[in-house]
Amino acid sequence: MFSLLRRTLAATLVTAGGFVCYWTYLTINQERLLFDARRRPPRDLPDGIVGYSHAVPGGQFRGYCYHADHEGVGDLLFYLPGRGEDVLETLQFMKWLPHGMGFATFDYRGIGHSDGMPSEAAAVADASQFLLHLRRAFPGVRVHVV
Description:
The protein has 146 residues and is α/β, with parallel strands linked by helices. Helix content is 38%, strand content 21%.
């Protein structure tokens, strides 16, 4: 009985210690894990893509917008890319959008065409500013954030 209790307590302590180590590692390395700036060389934009930029510390933030017919856009899909994702690769799928649907996305700071240092605060600020730009550029259009 005493041996079983001892093994159970040891297993519980090892498991709890593992969780503490794991969460400590994530807390310490969050910025590096989430915002690893793997900069890719800038490429030419595909046909039909309109570029957007605004100044950020260290250079320019860049976003991209596609709409087949500006007057016919009823909905706009605002795509927030994954970590280190090359959004120009994502833009190849815009040809499958239904008629009347636009597409907008951006490169996080330090990734793709955008300059600067990536961080959580920068990602939130840039996405918010780009969304405000989209609302001004497409008044009355429903924006769907994905």
